[in-house]
Amino acid sequence: MIQSTDLITETAQILKDRLESPVSLREPLAKYTTFGLGGCADVFVNVGTLVDLRTLLAVAFSAGVPVTVLGDGSNVLISDLGVRGIVIKLAGEFNTFTIDGREVEAGGSVGMSRLIAETARAGLAGLENVYGVPGSVGGCVYMNAGTRYGWTSDTLVDVLVVQPDGKESLMSRDDLEMSYRHSRLQQMNPAPVVARARFRLESEDSSAIRSRIAERAKARQASQPLNHRSCGCMFTNPGSDSAGRLIDECGLKGLSEGSVSVSGKHANFFVTDEGATAADVRKLAERVRNRVRERTGITLDLEVRLLGEWPDE
Ligand code: EPU
Question: Does any ligand 1 atom lie closer than 6 A to the CB of residue 128?
Fold first, then answer.
């Protein structure tokens, strides 16, 4: 939907008047993503309180201006043309968590790696199965992020969400219909925003949890190109096979488009150099998909979420 500049400017002014959170115009978004790519948001708000989140969504809803939520930007590809409407990133009170016995309640913008470290320190196990997947709590719930050891859904109890019209509601894990890299939030358009998530963990000796984390960190370091900019795995694994293995088998390591290439270390990672564009990433993804489909008959699905305005849409 094309939004008129006047409507965007008018809505931004209402937000500036009504929110405590900072509102900016034409904000470059590349710095909020692990790829470091993408254009500007028409309006960008670092939302620091639940009250502001509710107000912002209600204002945008009644004006008909779309809202896009960014987590840690580790699983998104933002178009070079940027994102129309309002882009929000949670901060402030959404960046805090509490531990009560075996229950942990964390705001949507808490980094999952920080939460894993803190719960391990407190002698609580379960979240470390997601260790190594970069992302915020909200992003991990939305994507049901995980590794071969387990997924976000394994320990999730429920989430407090704010609906597109600004009303709060509680969604249980069952309501979220979570499966491999999927939650129902992905089908809801516009999706509710995850304000907080509650997890139930198991008590275990802290040093045992930490040694599992150290072991997994070592394996990840050995198999993934962690010193390059990427967005983690580009494609979801098809069934019980591995997208990385398939791309590798097709001889595509090192295939490039502009300054983006298929990693030589792990074929399901695309890594970027100076001068890379989001359009190059997308073109390379299409070429890889086509080559894998021709060679194996398997069609890979993108794990990375495409955000913003794309020329072909
Ligand atoms: N493989 C190759 N060539 C490659 C890459 C992998 O032959 O270039 C082989 C490996 O040798 C292994 C198999 O493929 O036998 C699976 O590879 P790996 O153990 O690296 O796991 P993966 O299925 O590629 C998944 C998650 C990762 C997560 C790892 C570790 C997906 C799409 N990826 O990768 O998650 O870190 O397991 O648990 O589910 C992410 O989602 O962004 C992500 C990095």
Answer: no
